[in-house]
Design a protein that fits this description.
It is a single chain. The chain is an all-alpha fold and 351 residues long. The chain is built from 13 helices and three strands, in the order H-H-E-H-H-E-H-H-H-E-H-H-H-H-H-H. The protein has helices spanning 10-16, 19-22, 51-78, 85-114, 121-154, 159-162, 165-191, 208-212, 220-255, 258-291, 297-322, 324-333, 338-350, and strands at residues 38-41, 118-120, 200-201. Strands 2-1-3 form a three-stranded mixed sheet. The longest helix is centred in the last third of the chain and has 36 residues, at 220-255. It is globular and about 65 Å long. The N and C termini lie far apart (76 Å).
Length: 351
């Protein structure tokens, strides 16, 4: 049995809302002065009848993200030649990309496959905090990567003076305070709202703007602090990234030639591809929620989900394929290293 709009079954709401005791109608709207404390996550409401099939691409992306990033972390940790700062930063990014899918994709799969789509307000706020907090460190790591390449190429003689454990510790503490304070403010302000419009979150996870959209009353403070967080975290990081790579490309085009030029462009090119994909998706997500009010909920879902999970699948593939040292270490771990093939051929010839 479906509701009048045909989007998803009414019985799903009935599990969450007792109409006789809460004064909530069958559409999830409050008829009295009540704030919801339990919600239903309905990812892609336009495809609700086909939600079982939606679990297939989600599982595939989850599998690629977990296996790919775990592989990158493992080979960098075990590879004796992969302990330079650049590889440590790639490992940090892989850690972020490994944690992010674990925070929400299992819940999405259970929702699609078994209709386990209920979540409490506290659980929703905790999920929101950790997704935004961990994701903010992805932006910070990309910024530190850009600074690392800037010093390595533009000021190589002072590289060890600037890029060391002390610098990483200071940057980590600064990022922890900046990201932690801003994300905490977002979550605290969201938790202080009264959610009387509906208890149905038309999203795969507890996204800030979607949850705030269910609140009654003014949400101006939430919009302001959300915009401030975007400016101060990815916005500020992106400025440092642009500064670093503009100077890098200027130095490379001016001074480098031959193999040095190709190596510099190849190394920086890999980072630029990752940065481009991450920030383009972030920009699309920001524009969709700020200026795309008329877009269907499914489009909002797709954009915001791709913004979070696609880099987690894409980054390990790019670093594994384009970074020679990491690629060689992966082949060595799998027993497919070229030296093994060569030694086999030499043995066959001597015999």
């Amino acid at each position: 049995m479906e509701d009048s709009e045909g989007s998803f079954p009414v019985r799903t709401l009935d599990r969450m809302v007792d109409n006789r005791s809460t004064g909530v109608n069958l559409q999830g709207h409050v008829t009295g002065n009540i704030s919801h404390t339990n919600f239903i996550l309905i990812g892609f409401p336009g495809f609700y009848e086909h939600r079982r099939f939606l679990s297939i691409p989600f599982f595939f992306m989850f599998f690629v993200a977990v296996v790919g990033n775990s592989t990158i972390i493992f080979v960098i940790k075990t590879g004796s030649t992969l302990h330079a700062p650049m590889y440590v930063l790639i490992s940090c990014l892989a850690t972020v990309n490994l944690i992010l899918p674990l925070l929400f994709v299992p819940k999405v799969l259970f929702s699609f496959l078994f209709d386990l789509n209920e979540i409490s307000l506290l659980g929703c706020l905790l999920q929101m905090f950790f997704i935004h907090f961990i994701n903010s460190f992805g932006s910070t790591v990309l910024m530190v990567m850009a600074l690392d390449r800037y010093v390595a190429i533009c000021n190589p003689l002072r590289y060890n003076d600037y890029i060391n454990k002390s610098t990483f510790f200071k940057l980590s503490v600064a990022a922890l305070f900046r990201n932690g304070i801003l994300v905490s403010l977002i979550v605290i302000l969201a938790g202080s709202l009264s959610f009387c419009l509906s208890n149905v979150i038309e999203h795969c996870y507890c996204e800030h703007m979607v949850l705030v959209g269910l609140a009654c009353g003014s949400t101006a403070k939430n919009s302001i602090i959300g915009l401030l967080a975007i400016v101060c975290i990815p916005g500020l990081d992106f400025l440092f990234i642009c500064f670093s790579y503009l100077n890098i490309f200027f130095v490379v085009f001016k001074a480098a030639s031959g193999k040095s030029f190709q190596k510099g462009m190849h190394t920086c090119g890999t980072h630029v591809i990752v940065i481009f994909v991450s920030y383009i998706l972030a920009l699309c997500s920001f524009l969709a929620y700020r200026f795309g009010k008329s877009l269907p909920a499914d489009i909002h879902n797709l954009i915001s989900v791709m913004y979070v999970i696609f880099p987690c699948c894409f980054n390990p593939v790019i670093y594994g394929a384009r970074t020679k040292e990491i690629r060689d270490q992966i082949l060595k771990t799998l027993g497919l290293r070229k030296s093994n093939v060569i030694s086999t051929k030499v043995e066959s010839i001597t015999q």
